[in-house]
Amino acid sequence: MFQNVKEVTASYKAIDFAKNRETIRQRVETKLGGEVESHGLSINSVALKNVDFTKALSKAIEQTVEAEQQAKRAEAQVNIVQAEAEQKIAQARGVAEATLTQARDRPDRRDARGRPRDEDG
After folding, report:
1. pLDDT at res. 114
2. pLDDT (tens digit, 9 = 90+) per residue, 70-79?
3. Residue 46 neighbours by CB under 8 Å, 6+ apart
């Protein structure tokens, strides 16, 4: 039986073990169930408890999780900066359009009847 558990767990990196715990549990349960069925036994449930890693591996897992969290925070910060930049661009366009409109409507840009002059004259 131990060999069945080892075969299933060996296909996962220790760092990914916690994320895939339920999948691993189900695969072990299926594999063990198939093994004991021929002996008239059945497996109702498998529990993965007290899974211990070495201190070095535990530290590596913690560092990996922290690095992933930092990457997500950095990505969120980039998204915020991009949104702020797009907002500033939109504001600048609005100011530019307003300035052009005001420039076109200036009295010195109109003819004697108050109509906008042609660009040529």
Report:
1. 67
2. 999 999 999 9
3. 25, 28, 29, 32
